[in-house]
Amino acid sequence: MLSILIFCCFVVLALIGMPIAHSLIVASEIGLIPSDRLGVDFIVQQLVTQTQSFPLVAIPFFMLTGSLMVGGKLGQHLIDMLTQMMGRFHGGPAQVGVLSSTIFGGVSGSAVADASAIGSLLIPWLKKLGYPPAFAAGTLAAAATIDILIPPSIPMIIYALVSSASIGALFVAGILPGILMCIGFMAVCYVQGRRRNFPRDNTPFNWTQLRQSTYYAMPALLLPILIIIFLRFGIATPTEVSVMSTLYALVVSVAIYHDLDMARLRHSIIDAGLATAVVMLIIMASSVIGWVLTFEQLPAAFVEFAKNTLGQPWMIILSMNVIMLAIGMFIDLPAAVLLLTPMFVPLASAIGMDTVQLGIMMIINLSIGLYHPPVGTTLFITSSIAKVKMGQVVMELIPFYAVAICILMLYSFVPALTLRL
């Protein structure tokens, strides 16, 4: 079977260190060699066809919005506000990191951008306060993944592309798990801070500074609310909202922060373009494998196998979670979403699971892989910023894994938690 050959080639190429997107393309080329009907021209056609989707236009604009908003003064104003509010509590400075990532999630939609931007600001500050570098890195690595649950979310847009689910419905459904994850991670910081007597911020409380910081941070707090309002009431499509969010970021940077010049605008556009290119290359690379899976009717065969072997819906849901957790450890989140969605959507439909619930379950599940070795992207970023070994950070992450798994199980087996438009 072509799909088996392609999968074997992909695993070998990924294990020898080839980037995931390139591994997918090369594996597809090798796997289709035995076919006398499908050649290189077919691969090129599929690569291009997958990009001809209007909702994908939202990705570069949301990326640019995040780069414009956090690349300037917003990040520091946001941290100042949260420090004034939370710094005096047990584990308060670490909780500032969790809250910053949650609010930043309403601006960017990219966990990698969150880990880089917030991590660069907060990890040196936490180390200066006396926090263990490994704990600081672990907190920010885990908190960065809240970013892809709070709308806008780039992985949700990718999932919607493959599953035909509503982007607006996914954005709304992602709010509650993002808040629950934030509360759970803050609870971990509080317990660890109290148990291990972590230092707290002793700066005298100043109402004037809090009001000023809140004023400057308010644009970041308003953006996700505006996005949900526009989508909920049908004022604009997700693609139109992404363009408006970029215009919003430009106006805020010019009128409120006064920190936008041509050099920073150029830098933001380049950063957003590069980040979008990475995502788009993975989408293109996955298109050939997705076509082959459909052509060989593997999703239908997989559904029949799971129903006949596992039987009970709860066992099927549990098995899907185990598969996603395993794949998420080795494949980056966008590629994993594109590879697994065609297999799991028919299976979820067969057991009565809604595609929106499946999407939230998938995003929560695969986000754990972002801060789990061996390929945890946010884990690598924060470990590098903190200058500590990844193994030390993983030990600090154990309670964060426990919180994430608990929330994953809730969203897997309690459909009522998935909010609807």
> Helical percent range?
over 70%
Oligomer: single chain
Contiguous low-pLDDT stretches (5 residues minimum) are none
Number of helices: 19
| Secondary-structure class | mainly alpha
- Number of distinct beta strands: 0
Mean pLDDT: 84
Number of domains: 1
Strand content: under 5%
Kindly, what is the distance between the CA atoms of the first and last residues, rounded to a whole number of angstroms?
42 Å
Shape: globular
**Sequence of secondary-structure elements:** HHHHHHHHHHHHHHHHHHH
> If you compute it from the alpha carbons, what radius of gyration comes out, rounded to the nearest whole angstrom?
22 Å
**Largest beta-sheet details:** none
In short:
The protein is mainly α. Helix content is 76%, strand content 0%. It starts with a helix and ends in an 8-residue tail after the last helix.
Structure description:
The chain is mainly α. It has one domain. Helices cover 76% and strands 0% of the residues. The protein has 19 helices and no strands. The protein has helices at residues 2-15, 20-31, 40-49, 58-70, 74-86, 92-104, 111-129, 133-143, 154-163, 167-195, 207-232, 238-257, 262-295, 298-309, 313-328, 333-350, 355-368, 377-386, 390-413. The longest helix is centred in the middle third of the chain and has 34 residues, at 262-295. The chain is globular, with a radius of gyration of 22 Å. It starts with a helix and ends in an 8-residue tail after the last helix. The model has no long low-confidence stretch (mean pLDDT 84).
